[in-house]
Amino acid sequence: MPTSLGRHFSIEFISVLGQEPSEFVGLTSELGCSRIGLAPSPIAGPFGSEREWTLRGDRPRINQLKQALADHGVRVALGEGFIIMPGRNIADAEADFDLMAELGAERLNVCAMDPDPVRNLEQFSIFASLAADRDLPVTLEFMPATPVPDLAAAVAFVGESAASNAAVLVDAMHFFCSGGTNDELRNVPDGKIGYAQLCDAKQASFYDGYFQDARQERPLPGLGVLPLGHFLHALPPGCPIGLEIPSVASALAGVDRKAYLTQALDAAEGLLQDRVAIGHRLPDAQ
Question: Contact at 8 Å (CB) between 10 and 286?
Answer without folding.
Answer: yes
